[in-house]
Amino acid sequence: MDAYVAPVEDYRFLLSQVLGFDLEMAELGSDLDTELAVSILDEAGKLCTEVLHPINQSGDEEGSRIVDGEVRTPAGFSNAYATFRDAGWPSLSADTAHGGQGLPFVLQLWLDEMLSASNLSFGLFPALTRGAAEAIAAHATDAVKSTYLSRMVSGEWTGVMALTESSAGSDLSLIKTKASPQADGSHTITGQKIFISSGDHDFGGNIIHLVLARLPDAPAGVSGISLFLVPKFLPDAAGACARRNTMAVGSLEHKMGIHAQPTCVMNYDEAIGWLVGEPNRGLAAMFTMMNAERLMVGMQGLGVAASAYQQAAVYAKGRSQGRGASAASGTVAIVEHVDVRRMLLDVRSFVEGGRALAGWVALQVDRARKHPDPDERTRADGFVALLTPVIKAAFTDMGFESAVQAQQVFGGHGYIREWGMEQLVRDARIAQIYEGTNGIQALDLVGRKLSMAGGTVVDAYFALIEGDLDRAADGSIAKNVVTALETLRGITVLLKGADPQTLGAAAVDYLRMFALVSLGWMWLRMECAAEQGSTPLDRAKIDIARYFATRVLPRVSGMAATLSSGPEPIMALPVDAF
Amino acid sequence: MDAYVAPVEDYRFLLSQVLGFDLEMAELGSDLDTELAVSILDEAGKLCTEVLHPINQSGDEEGSRIVDGEVRTPAGFSNAYATFRDAGWPSLSADTAHGGQGLPFVLQLWLDEMLSASNLSFGLFPALTRGAAEAIAAHATDAVKSTYLSRMVSGEWTGVMALTESSAGSDLSLIKTKASPQADGSHTITGQKIFISSGDHDFGGNIIHLVLARLPDAPAGVSGISLFLVPKFLPDAAGACARRNTMAVGSLEHKMGIHAQPTCVMNYDEAIGWLVGEPNRGLAAMFTMMNAERLMVGMQGLGVAASAYQQAAVYAKGRSQGRGASAASGTVAIVEHVDVRRMLLDVRSFVEGGRALAGWVALQVDRARKHPDPDERTRADGFVALLTPVIKAAFTDMGFESAVQAQQVFGGHGYIREWGMEQLVRDARIAQIYEGTNGIQALDLVGRKLSMAGGTVVDAYFALIEGDLDRAADGSIAKNVVTALETLRGITVLLKGADPQTLGAAAVDYLRMFALVSLGWMWLRMECAAEQGSTPLDRAKIDIARYFATRVLPRVSGMAATLSSGPEPIMALPVDAF
């Protein structure tokens, strides 16, 4: 594969010309500016290019495996993790109160993009650690925090989330793992968990599992689930990894992709753990972790698409095949063929639109955390909650489709392992499934998020888009975005207060429409910004904005036509007839 | 995985209630009837269920490999091929003049569906043999035919098509393999071919390669390519495999899927071969083979989707997760959830619609071959030519999407190898690429097929659909099909006589629209037929017809909106900016 190129110039364009980064930072009382932010992203990009991408394909071929009961990651992973950790990347956006650098979340999310683009399997290790640390920071006792938190923030120790059991996946109410209180205030945890990403590794340090389990007196269902911190090693008073806890990797899953990532079956056999948060309120504590992870998983879709685009563009410019449009021309590079360009632009218009939208949402995360005005914090928090399922599901669906499309540019070579494109497809596929399947995300959007605060959050979001539309110049893509937004709004009105089956029948199409309109909004903002400039990047943005507006956005009309038929055609067929 | 169930009752429904099989056969002078046809399909289905499906997953795990310079297929494949061959399946639809059974092509295409559903890697061996035999029958000399044809028709010997070179894929004009005439009328062939499916194996018998190469005096480009028959073993006068030809497997490709299928790099080193067809007219001869293969490849998409549907439906009925729609209900099977049903019905409405359309096209193949009226033969041949790229591209795109969708029903288990769903996704992916990428198929449809016979073929096809619409009852799905057909016709008018870039910009969306309308037409016919009956199958057809009409067909409007923007938004971005 060609080397991964970090999209640093695109980040700069977004921060300085589109997202108003410097003003945002000033509003939040930070003196960070675009130049410093870009230099940080540039450093991260170098690490991804030089350290992580070179071991992505070999990691897939070799895979993680079990040696003497412990996970051995592929060659180079342990050293790469040490480099990543020692450079301080794990603590980038963590709260300074816990030893983090407190840098804006937009840097975190774009770092996640680059990690996913260069090595998705690797990126999961720090991402899960970060999510676990956030749950601990928000819900654990001071004693637990003082032992674990700073070591996880620094990346010295890693974190894991252990939710799923063989009979409890999307439905966590069915969890059976048991917790028994001990006299010293700890608990013993007994049960089996499956699909545990990063469940074990050979990076050194401790591995901190956050495990969902039931207390003896717990009520049935979701209101009887508690969260426990279960470390691989029980630390002594000095925090050293003193004693092995009674937990073990049962086996590694053999998967379609992310072979370098050890997906463990974990057995907890009276393992010692500590309650995190209130008894029976474990699901709420776990959702602190899940929500952070969902944005990150969206970045996995985006990152793989970005990587796939780069490879496909290089291939399309270098591969000669077929004649040009004029009869006189000889063999041309396949990028000259209109259908090849269509494939490339489908991918690129998603990638750059998605990168902008992720940046905007990440700035809302910062506003929600740090804005001096509590109303602004609430408002921003609402936008983050609204957009989280959209980013998780649409970015991973479009990310997978993009990887498939980029693979198609390679023709037969795309199907051959050595070219690396089929790995991107296999790796991207998991992101549509884990951290809540994309169907679950869509139900979250239509079932919970649309009705937040009486529907005012979604109304405020649409009003934001409308504000930019009103300001847009004639001749811009605004008219295309207006059409799509009006269609989306019409469906949104129909869905307000609809019954669960109507919502369920609309969910997946609605989420995609919502994502396309949001990407269209970002393309409008990018087009307007680029009209002020004259660099090749500015001119490219204008061309791609028009591509997105005319070739991608109109699909909204077909989705609207589909979902307005309601649930009846879906529910008519009797169960036995399936 | 659960056992594969051959869709025999669906075939019976289509033959007897939808496609008018008995009348068609009578018109072609055959006394074959539905009952006999179904019993043949039933036998084929048993073989697929009992012999081929059980070695599909193990074949993927083990893969084909090279031992002492020759290909060793996975355990069970050689025995399975012997069973398949000895039962006479290779000769099913071959011309009786060449030792075939001369049975209708609809049986062949549905056999292809079942082969692909149960074991795609296996199915390629007989499919390629059949295509090669057809090219030989149509173009080779009597001497060549008498040595090779009947042995290939019986499946004693297998066939291979060797087109692609590392610099010549979609663009065969760039082929470099050389042919030198010898004094005895034979030629020596020297060069390297890649991506040669079934290039070698351990099934016994000879392996007959049809190789594209250039004669010494050949003009450049496509009009300088000739076709040669190059056998692995040079037969003696009695037809025994007497002497090894100077050709060898250089290596096997490591692929995303179809691991059991040996995809060979083939080196021909002054290998002896015989010209098939006229010098420099090799591409025309090869297209005899390609066209037959393209319908078969479409069946690969359909077959994998059918298999994936079966697995997902069983899983969805057996996996309990989440609550039902009413608050009182406990945990329910996931098939009760509206979004899971949506996924299942997307797949099933494609599978059953596609099966019907394939049956209809296959009957046109028979009419083109056997109808007593030459005008009817021409008319039917036009329909086959028109629908071939549609079936190849849309069925493999929708087949892949269906496999992905069915995998999604399994949640995390779908990503784990042992469940088998991820293999279906990996295997299905190749069908979108080989035998002419789906982009090439779309260009064939808009660039060549729409303008066949001055556009009268496509007009006649639309008129056929319109005839059924006029006859349809009120309350049927006819109104949905009318809307989609009118949209398609509008775009078709716009494309007539359009320039190549406009055609290229529209091609892929247009092909999908064409496919959806065609599937809608089949669902209309199935709905009308089912309205006459009262079995559970009849009632299910009515429900699924309505699903397709309201939840799938309306996507045509979004595609129309997209493609009517023309090529400008695709071509604006300069090459350097990609």
Overall 3D geometry of chain A?
globular
* Through-space gap between termini of chain A: 44 Å
Unreliable parts of chain A: none
Q: Count of helical segments of chain A?
A: 18
State the major sheet of chain A.
7 strands, mixed
Q: Using the coordinates shown, work out and report the CATH topology of the domain at 8-138 in chain A.
A: Butyryl-Coa Dehydrogenase, subunit A, domain 1
The Cα radius of gyration of chain A reads: 24 Å
Mean pLDDT level of chain A: 96
The CATH class label of the domain at 8-138 in chain A is Mainly Alpha
- Strand tally of chain A: 13
| CATH homologous superfamily label of the domain at 8-138 in chain A | Acyl-CoA dehydrogenase/oxidase, N-terminal domain
Quaternary state of the chains:
homodimer
Largest interface: A-B, 96 and 96 residues
Briefly note the structural class of the backbone of chain A.
alpha+beta
**CATH architect. name of the domain at 8-138 in chain A:** Orthogonal Bundle
In percent terms, what proportion of residues of chain A is strand?
5-15%
**Helix content range of the residues of chain A, please?**
55-70%
Task: Write a brief structural summary.
Chain A has 578 residues and is α+β, with helices and mostly antiparallel strands. The first copy, chain A, contains 18 helices and 13 strands. In chain A, the strands form four sheets. In chain A, strands 3, 4, 5, 6, 7, 10 and 11 form a seven-stranded mixed sheet that branches. The first copy, chain A, has a two-stranded antiparallel sheet with strand order 1-2.
